[in-house]
Design brief:
By secondary structure, this protein is mainly α. The chain has helices spanning 19-37, 49-69, 80-92, 96-119, 123-147, 149-160, 164-192, 200-213, 222-226, 241-257, 262-267, 270-275, and strands spanning 7-8, 77-78. A two-stranded antiparallel ribbon has the order 1-2. The radius of gyration is 23 Å and the shape is elongated.
C-alpha cells in the first residue's frame, strides 16, 4: 500500500474533524464494534517483524504525523478506514506491544517539540501558544483513539489495565503542561487581573485544560481556578459578604475603565464564556 492510500493532497482541508470526517469516524467505530463482537476470525497473511518495521509502521507513522500537525492550511485528507485496517492486522499478528510502544514514542517525540516551541514564545504570546497546542492535540487524539480502538481493546485494556485516551492525555501532561506550569500559572494570574487582555474563551480553555490534566494544580492558584471551575473554593460565608461586594465593585470599575457601560455589561454573557471554553475565538 502506497502513502497515497492514506493521504490525498487534493482533498478538503484537514483541521478539526469536519462533518464528513465525523461520518467516516462513525463508520470506523461501527466497523470496530462489529469486528470486536464477531465470533469469526479474518484470515490474514502472516506479518513478520520486518514487515511491520518496513511497511506497516512507516505508513501509520505518516498518518499519525499528519493528525498531530494538522492545520486549516493543510489540504490533506486521511482514510481512517485504511489506518484502522493496518492497526487491526498488526494486532491480529501479535505486534500489539510493538505498535503501542511506537505510537507512544512517536507522540512523545512530537510533544517534546511542541514544548520547545512554547518555551520560545514571548510572554505576551505564551498563553495563546499553549492554548493552541492543547486544542490541536485534543483534536488529534479524537481521531487517533478511534482508529486504534482494536489495540486499545485487546492490548491496553486487557494487558496494561489502562485506556489509550488516558495514556495520550498523560503524555501531554508530562511533556508539555507540567514543564510550563510554573510559567503559565503566574501569567494567567497576571492577565486575569486585567480584564480582556486575553480572550475569556482562551483563559477558560487553558485553566480548564490544566485542571483536567492535574486537578491538584488548582491549589497553586485557587482564586484563578475558582473563576472557571465550579466548587473549587469553599461555600461563601456570611461574614465575608462585605468583601465579596467590594470585589464586585472593583470589577465594575475595571469594566468601566475598559469602555464597558452598564448596558454593555448586561449584554455580555459571562456565564457562556466561563462554562463553554470551546466557543469560537
Amino acid at each position: 500500500m502506497d502513502e497515497e492510500d492514506f493521504l490525498d493532497s487534493s482533498s478538503a482541508p484537514m483541521s478539526l474533524p469536519t462533518a464528513s470526517d465525523e461520518s467516516e469516524l462513525e463508520r470506523v467505530k461501527k466497523t470496530n464494534q462489529m469486528i470486536l463482537n464477531s465470533p469469526s476470525k479474518l484470515v490474514i497473511n502472516a506479518m513478520t517483524s520486518e514487515d511491520y518495521k518496513t511497511t506497516y509502521w512507516p505508513k501509520l507513522e505518516t498518518a499519525i504525523e499528519h493528525l498531530l500537525t494538522q492545520s486549516p492550511t493543510d489540504h490533506i485528507s486521511i482514510s481512517y478506514e485504511q489506518i484502522y485496517s493496518y492497526v487491526y492486522k498488526c494486532v491480529c499478528q501479535q505486534h500489539s506491544e510493538l505498535l503501542y510502544n511506537d505510537l507512544i514514542r512517536k507522540i512523545a517525540s512530537h510533544l517534546q517539540q511542541v514544548s520547545t516551541d512554547i518555551q520560545g514564545s514571548p510572554p505576551e504570546r505564551f498563553i495563546e501558544k499553549f492554548n493552541l497546542a492543547l486544542v490541536q492535540y485534543t483534536a488529534a487524539i479524537q481521531c487517533i483513539v478511534p482508529v486504534f480502538i482494536y489495540m486499545n481493546k485487546f492490548y491496553i485494556e486487557t494487558k496494561l489495565n489502562r485506556d489509550l485516551k488516558d495514556d495520550l492525555m498523560k503524555l501531554f501532561s508530562d511533556h508539555v503542561a507540567e514543564k510550563h506550569v510554573n510559567t503559565l500559572i503566574p501569567l494567567l494570574q497576571k492577565v486575569d487581573a486585567v480584564p480582556f487582555q486575553v480572550r475569556p474563551s482562551t483563559m477558560a480553555n487553558v485553566v480548564k485544560g490544566i485542571y483536567a490534566l492535574r486537578p491538584d494544580l488548582a491549589l497553586l492558584a485557587p482564586e484563578l481556578f475558582s473563576r472557571f471551575i465550579p466548587q473549587i473554593k469553599p461555600p461563601a460565608l456570611e461574614s465575608q459578604l462585605a468583601l465579596y461586594a467590594a470585589q464586585d465593585q472593583k470589577l465594575q470599575i475595571e469594566l468601566s475603565l475598559n469602555g464597558f457601560s452598564r448596558d454593555k455589561e448586561a449584554a455580555c454573557s459571562f456565564p457562556i464564556f466561563w462554562n463553554d471554553p470551546f466557543l469560537p475565538n
